[in-house]
Amino acid sequence: MSTATLTRTSPNRAVLRTELRLFGREPAGLFWIVVFPTVLLVILGSIPSFREADKSLGGIRLVDAYVPVTVLLAMIMSGLQSMPPVITGYRERGILRRMSTTPVRPAALLGAQMGIHGAAALCSAVLSLAVGRIAFGVPLPRHAAGYLLALVLAVLVALALGALVSALSRTTKISNAIGSVVFFPMMFCAGVWLPVQAMPGALAHIVAYSPFGAAAEALGQAAAGDWPSWSHLGVLAVWTLLLSGAASRWFRWE
Fold it and tell me: Which parts pass through the membrane (predicted)?
């Protein structure tokens, strides 16, 4: 990252532009965040049994239940698998330390990374909703405002979790290891292997207190036309505050 480039224009804007360009040069990251969740939805939706109403899901089809799952999968990929290695890599190579001697502050880079990965996750959500509607007749969320609120909170909690992983990891290898350990439980809670609606009562109750379990429930309720339960929204808000506070407490620029 060139210091001269950063100082010619607004520092924060220059950082954002540079990070966006670098992100666009990583096709793997773009694929796993933006494309893969929708590809998974298409594969699942192509299974005939997934397009039949299921009484255990309240009469909806499995493909209907998996749209919010793929939306959350993009956020998990973005927050746990894509963002932490970038930030820890900058710290490991001394880029954050060198930035402290320029008009740009390391916080600008962290903000740019969170903004870019959050935007990528939201683009993936729009793509999943569009493909689900066009290819499989999945209704668009009936309570748009409630769905949008749950979506934004889910993005924030995913980024806060990624920031905490970045804070706890001194090297890229460590961030990959921690991200992988957290990744699979979060996917389970989001309903990747079993939709939250189909989980047994006790398990569903426990999962609902996890960030992505609460997000799955909130998105499902809004998709069905109801305002998301305040308890689920509250769980998302509390997790966002706790994870953000922990990340801020333990984050080191060097």
Answer: 30-50, 62-87, 107-132, 144-168, 174-194, 230-251
